[in-house]
Design a protein that fits this description.
The structure is a single chain. The protein is built from seven helices and five strands. By secondary structure, it is an alpha/beta fold. The protein has a five-stranded parallel sheet with strand order 3-2-1-4-5, with helices on both faces. β1, α1 and β2 form a beta-alpha-beta unit. It is globular and about 30 Å long. The two termini are 30 Å apart.
Length: 155
């Protein structure tokens, strides 16, 4: 069985689930889904990305979303939704929320599970990507397995 560690920042859409569950054809895949609750540290970068994507209303409301501990509940619900969607497609899926130092946790999960790859599924983050500070770019230097970066879909 092929094992993928899937890093997400929002609930998986039906399109995302279809895509990641068919990446390896008919091979059986198990997923370990890692989700990081929103944090104050990336609020400015999210607002800049919203402006760059022409999503001005979203940029203005970045401060309205729950942050820190208040974000754990919505993140847990998003994780549960994503795991359920993967399981409904026939994939084996487990998951956990990750707090501080998500890349250190990613490396530990890859090592303990003997994962074959990492899939980073996020919205575009222009500033972080330009400076190679996004999850995928940083993970490539840390985890020792192939890292695939995909852009999440919005419903």
């Amino acid at each position: 069985m092929f094992t993928s560690v899937l890093m997400i920042e929002q609930p998986l859409t039906a399109v995302d689930v279809d895509f990641v569950t068919t990446l390896h054809g008919d091979d059986q895949v198990s997923f370990i889904v890692l989700m990081q609750p929103r944090g104050d540290q990336d609020r400015l970068l999210r607002a800049i990305d919203d402006v760059a994507l022409g999503e001005l209303p979203e940029a203005l409301h970045e401060g309205d979303e729950p942050e820190g501990e208040a974000a754990r509940g919505p993140a847990a619900q998003a994780l549960a939704h994503s795991l359920n969607a993967l399981r409904q497609k026939g994939a084996k899926a487990t998951g956990r929320l990750v707090g501080n130092h998500p890349l250190d946790k990613l490396k530990a999960v890859v090592e303990e599970a003997g994962a074959d790859e990492v899939i980073v599924l996020t919205a575009p983050h222009f500033v972080e990507e330009f400076f190679h500070r996004d999850w995928a770019s940083r993970a490539r230097h840390k985890v020792g397995v192939p890292v695939l970066k995909l852009f999440a879909h919005n419903e």
